[in-house]
């Protein structure tokens, strides 16, 4: 069936297609994410993760969109309008590596039913949430 001839049942959102950040120096920031967090950013500052490559029945992979009150401190400084949440496979080791590299790592972590959370800050002041998902997430 041709793309334009699909039968459409409902006009709706089916998932999160991406997260986009403003940057004063996109190439430098892409290198920081690549070198410090292992995000396989291209030289142009883009990456696409394919859930089908990593999803299993036990670990289906999820992406969450959540809204917070204007006065929340969770996302970071008041001028920061968005926060990245990056899935990681070993939060404790990654945070130790980041500290050793001089990355600003926030001292608190959170252990919840969803997994283990920690935070760091990129060179442009954006708070990043690092998430080691709980078993089965």
Automatic annotation (TrEMBL):
Q: Which PROSITE patterns match?
A: VOC
Check the UniProt entry and state the signal peptide residues, or none: none
Q: Which Pfam families match?
A: Glyoxalase_6
Protein name in the entry: VOC family protein
Q: Which InterPro entries does the UniProt entry name for this protein?
A: Anthracycline_SecMetBiosynth, Glyas_Bleomycin-R_OHBP_Dase, Glyoxalase_6, VOC_core
- Limits of the VOC domain: 15-133
Q: Which domain of life is it from?
A: Bacteria
